[in-house]
Amino acid sequence: PPDASRPIVLRLPTLRPRAPAAAALLFPGRAGSALTAEIGLMRATEQLSSMEMMAVDPLRRVMAPRCWAGVRSVPL
């Protein structure tokens, strides 16, 4: 490969501009996995079933505020 012959000093400047793009891809993944884990735990402990029994829509009560917050925070 052509990169193997180049020293690390020359490869570093080509990686620096890519760091913000990598961070931009990793942050939503982390936020999404945290949201998935929280909702999975709520399902495992039957909190969502309890909300349905109390005639509370879990989609509106749990998911909607989190999705709306994600949409609102994207421009930041």
Helix proportion range = over 70%
What is the strand content? under 5%
| Overall pLDDT metric | 85
Instruction: Indicate the overall shape.
Output: elongated
- Structural classification: mainly alpha
What's the arrangement of secondary structure elements?
Blueprint: H1 2-5, H2 8-15, H3 19-44, H4 47-53, H5 58-73
Q: Could you please describe the fold and organization of this structure?
A:
With 76 residues, this protein is mainly α. It has one domain. Helices cover 80% and strands 0% of the residues. The protein has helices spanning 2-5, 8-15, 19-44, 47-53, 58-73. The chain is elongated. The protein starts with a helix and ends with a helix.
Name some characteristics of this structure.
76 residues; mainly alpha; 5 helices; ABC transporter permease; phospholipid transporter activity; Permease_MalE
